[in-house]
Amino acid sequence: MNLKKRFSQANEKLRMPHTDPELFQSMSEKITSWLPEFPHEYVVVCIGTDRSTGDALGPLTGTLLSEMKPRHMTVYGTLHEPVHATNLVEYTNFIKEKHRNPYIIAVDACLGQTTSVGHLITGKGPLKPGAALNKPLPSVGNIHITGVVNISGFMEYSVLQNTRLSIVMDMSEKIAGLLNIIDQRLKYHFSAPAIVIQQEKQQSM
User: Hey, how many other C-beta atoms are within 10 angstroms of the C-beta on 119?
Assistant: First the structure.
């Protein structure tokens, strides 16, 4: 779990309420526009623990996305096998060893202002897990998606413990659905440029 105000500086961000009917279209298009032009191994790291309601956003998302059986994404961090403060470094090293030049999408919960609760935020660059609880953890992700689950500023650990499960579940479903849409678009994202290059070469011959 990380504090929104302590995000790494990113060139671009998009913030939308998770109830916005345009969420899937707008956010999936934005994230797809950030993806690299050449094929990569895509890894989704869903950070958090099921021992805290607010911090369960990541594991819930990982479980829901895994059940959708993505074809182009490998998912780490589920309710049964969470990625959290005590094993994040281990998972980070494992991903580097198992995946060649992985492109990582990090998912985590965060705290923010009252008006931001219920918003999903995506941006370029990594996020810093554990910032709200002052835990020294490595930054994770080429891009990130976070959900503002509750209010920051006082007794963050207690706030996370007392976050409503309903909003966390709703936001997890939206993030998993969003990532599933992106997974389905990946083959198109990479095949189109290859076809264009091939046609150009044929015309020049």
Answer: 21
Q: What are the pLDDT digits (tens) for 96-148?
A: 999 988 999 999 999 989 999 999 999 999 998 866 556 678 899 999 999 99
The residues, any chain, with a CB within 8 Å of residue 199's CB and separated by 6 or more, are none
**For residue 132, how many other CB atoms are within 10 A of its CB?**
23
Alpha carbons 168 and 110: distance in angstroms, whole number = 11
Q: 154 by DSSP, 3-state: which?
A: coil
Q: Over the range 59-70, which residues count as b (16 or more CB within 10 Å of their CB) and which as e? A: bbbbbbbbeeeb
The CA angle 166-170-173, to the nearest 5 degrees, is: 140
Q: So what's the pLDDT on residue 5?
A: 41
State yes or no: pLDDT of 186 exceeds 60. Answer: yes
**Domains and their CATH numbers in the chain:** 2-204 (3.40.50.1450)
Average pLDDT, the chain: 85
- Predicted model pTM: 0.84
Q: Could you give the maximum distance between any two Cα atoms of the chain, in Å? A: 68
Distance (Å) of CA 19 to CA 56, 64, 167, 175, 202:
19, 18, 10, 12, 47
